[in-house]
Amino acid sequence: MQGYEVVCAADGKEAIAAIENRIPDLIITDVMMPNMDGWELVQSLRSRADLLFTPIIYVTALGAGKDRIQGFRLGADDYMTKPFELEELHLRVRRVLARRDEIERELKQSYRIVDVPDDRAVSGTLAQISLASVLTLLEMERKSGLLLMHRQDPPASVRIYIKKGRVVAARMDGEGGERNEAAVFRALGWRNGRFEFASFEFDIDEEVRMSTTGLIMEGARMLDEWDR
Q1: Measured at the alpha carbon of residue 33, what is the angle toward residues 27 and 38, in degrees to the nearest 5?
Q2: Mean pLDDT of the chain
Q3: 28 and 100 fall within a common domain
């Protein structure tokens, strides 16, 4: 009624399946649901980097103070108890969406990602922002295109193909010439160099099956092993 596009799910498991197809701008959830309740759902969602800044509102009959504390502790942005007025829900939705937009603006400004003249690309240095943060931002915005990573010492470059925010393939030139996950893991360890992202549509087979969060976490684990 307020002009939002709404996707419904019967429980937490259905919600997670729906999110795999499309990252939402906002999640409104009950607590008491079959299969996976609202506590488990939010805990699962907050473990994902691509949903880190997605607002979550609990709407539930559980109004005790301990339940509200539990909701905020798990990462909810707001907590409403039933019964409620639709107008109040609408105001809270507007508030959390505005807050999310403000956080994203501040995040991008702090990373100082620079727009290039062709209006389609962003670039920066790894001294300003890590590859993990770049991948997270691209996933948040569901971007498609080519992310180029360049390093001078020792010289190497990696091409990372992004489709709707997900890494689908990667190629490394120099060093061992790794591909896909291995190429991303190597680039995650770079502490110097530059990145450039050009937004465009492309046709390439999906060769990387891991999520962005999975790539970052596994890359961090491998880097830790390499440093030992």
Answers
A1: 45
A2: 83
A3: yes
pTM, full prediction: 0.51
At residue 31, φ and ψ (nearest 5 deg) are: -100, -50
Phi, psi of 152 (to 5 degrees): -100, -30
Under the banding of pLDDT at 50, 70 and 90, the label for residue 114 is very low
Token representation of residue 128? 């300003």
Q: Give the CA distances from residue 34 to residues 11, 30, 66, in Å, rounded to whole numbers and listed in that order.
A: 6, 11, 21
| 225 or 186: which leads in pLDDT | 186
Strands 155-163 and 166-173: antiparallel
Within a domain: 6: no
Strands (E), 130-200: 145-152, 155-163, 166-173, 194-199
Question: In whole angstroms, what separates CA 227 from the centre of its chain?
Answer: 27
Strands (E) in 20-93, as ranges, are 27-29, 56-60, 78-81
Q: Are 193 and 151 in contact (CB under 8 A)?
A: yes
For residues 190 and 151, the answer to whether their CB atoms sit within 8 Å is: yes
Domain co-membership, 79 together with 123: no
CATH number reported for the structural domain that contains residue 25 in this entry: 3.40.50.2300
Question: Could you give the count of Cα atoms lying within 13 Å of 218 in the half-sphere of its Cβ?
Answer: 13
Report the distance separating Cα 3 and Cα 9, nearest Å.
19
